[in-house]
Design brief:
With 131 residues, this protein is mainly alpha-helical. It contains 5 helices and no strands. The longest helix is centred in the last third of the chain and has 29 residues, at 101-129.
């Protein structure tokens, strides 16, 4: 009888409760669970993505006749994305953090950007050689 009375006193023992987590709470937890290198990796990868987007836009505006500034901007975006990968990997090595959301996001964005830039260079080379 003591166990049943204790369960009645405590209320919902044995019942599962659903906890609502908002999108804002998950973003705050992502920032709390990430290292400084991971957050910096994600920000740097977004900067590299912006530089590459700017270079593509400038090339489009110049009708494909944009010379050195666009090429230098693309190479800078490539180097910045390599730095972002290095920062993400160094953030992943921290064993104190359980989840590495920002590190992985930074690495993924940087790798996709590097693949896209390599594809653009190869495509341009093939178009140049095909003339």
């Amino acid at each position: 009888m003591d166990i049943i009375e204790e369960e009645e006193r405590l209320g919902s023992v044995g019942k599962t409760q659903r906890i609502k987590i908002s999108r804002r709470d998950t973003m705050v937890n992502d920032l709390k669970n990430s290292t400084a290198q991971g957050i910096l990796s994600f920000i740097v990868s977004l900067v590299a993505l912006g530089a590459a987007g700017t270079a593509v836009y400038l090339s489009y505006r110049a009708a494909g006749h944009a010379d050195y500034p666009v090429g230098i901007l693309m190479i800078a975006a490539l180097l910045i994305s390599v730095v972002s990968i290095v920062l993400g990997v160094s953030g992943l090595k921290n064993r104190k953090k359980i989840r590495h959301y920002m590190e992985v996001r930074g690495i993924i964005v940087s790798v996709l950007l590097i693949l896209a830039l390599i594809g653009l260079y190869v495509w341009g080379l093939l178009l140049y050689l095909g003339k």
